[in-house]
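Worked example 4.2. Below are the chains of a multi-component assembly; read each line carefully before continuing.
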Amino acid sequence: MLRPGSARRWLAAAGRWSCRLLALLLLVPGPGGASEITFELPDNAKQCFYEDITQGTKCTLEFQVITGGHYDVDCRLEDPDGNVLYKEMKKQYDSFTFTASKNGTYKFCFSNEFSTFTHKTVYFDFQVGEDPPLFPSENRVSALTQMESACVSIHEALKSVIDYQTHFRLREAQGRSRAEDLNTRVAYWSVGEALILLVVSIGQVFLLKSFFSDKRTTTTRVGS
Amino acid sequence: GMHVEVKDPEGLVLSRQYGSEGRFTFTSHTPGEHQICLHSNSTRMALFAGGRLRVHLDIQVGEHANNYPEIAAKDKLTELQLRARQLLDQVEQIQKEQDYQRYREERFRLTSESTNQRVLWWSIAQTVILILTGIWQMRHLKSFFEAKKLV
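Applying the procedure described above to all two chains together yields the following structure tokens:
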């Protein structure tokens, strides 16, 4: 998956710390470039992000759920007029590319409202246009020399390596989260099973004893 | 204002109160999950239920935190030298990420080994409980039937 690299990484638990009456709406800046953020989405909550985009810019939104429940989330992307450009329910991972048709503030929201008690950790990467050039004030009249072109290709290749590493790290975190869930469930099940074993074996004995107890009537001889 | 707290896997790294604008930097000392928490203590917000706050956030990590035009001006680098510097920074970031993955793999191996130990001991314990319960059952029933003069 060859994509331009991402510029920022953020792990935040904003929802947990903010006052419950407040909804923190975060503006992610980026005149060109990308933002990648990993945030916590509490149960029954919705978190929205805003981005000012100029017309004609090619943008990519990619998200992945890292921890929590069935590892799925609802995602919705709207343009400044409120038209829904992308809407998916209960997705684990997806990538969406679009070209901005008008200037304005685009909004995308992640929703965990279908879940009653699982928090989710969601990673998203929003790429707006191309990365800013290394020399913003320079006018590119002359063509790049061979060395410079080589540097540019190495830069792009390394960005792709960093991108793969990010996805690998996310998969590792997700795998670890699943393993920890499994561990908890197996621990509870083992303890439960041991208790059931004890209860059943003691119960069997007393039940059997009750079959043979005298009822002040005839005592039946139990033949072998 | 906003209150900012930064936590790393070992504890609290930063805890500061800012006004309506603020800027902070930190260097990570341990690998792992770092948390950045932003908390508004504006009393005006607390009074009105459902108050909303729009926060502008800009986070730069690793080599993206470098301002290359500034570095070029400070160190007086040519374009090619600057590009080489950028590539070096990227490669350094890749190396750090690989170190992190190696650390994670080691932790995973330790966890797997400890889980293996625990499963082994648990299985032995469960078998012992089963056998002891069986023995108890038989002895208890035997003494019961002997008391009832059925055996």
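Take a moment to check your reading of the output against the notes. Chain B touches chain A through 62 residues (CB under 8 Å). Residues 144 and 150 of chain B are 9 Å apart (CA to CA).
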